[in-house]
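Continuing the batch. This is chain 6 of the set; chains 1 through 5 are on the previous pages. Same settings as before, nothing changed between runs. Recording input and output for traceability.
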Amino acid sequence: MIKMTLKIGNRTIRAFTLAEMLIVLAIVGMIMAISIPFTSGFGKELRIKTAARAVAGIMNAAKSNAVTFRKNYSVVFDVKKSQYWIEDSSGQIYEKKYYLPGSIKFEVQGDKEADPVTFENDRATFNSSGAAEGASGTVTLTDKQGESKTISVAGATGNIAIN
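Output for chain 6:
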């Protein structure tokens, strides 16, 4: 590289030329242009994963409460309002109601008529042993891009998994 040297009084100042600066900016621009397609999909997939983890976390909290307090706790899903919350056996809401992010809905990918919550009465109920009441069930979340995650609960064990 050619460095320019300016002499001002007793001081000597070294500087890059305009051409060198333009070359560096062009290289940085090319690197950014190449990397954008690889990183653009990362945020989209992260939203659906985060929402699925949040729903699974609330389900784990309900299961933990059922075991700790020795009474049934349910996670209730309001499909139309994109809400979910924990209720105890008397119907009292535990903490607060949670909303899905705006771009995510309780919905089965490709089939808007299918029930995204297969638990009876749209509620997953856990008993004092941590098992799910009734049969196993699933909750399906889908985002605007068509990505989908399913949270499943095994009836006998109460095991919660994200697929």
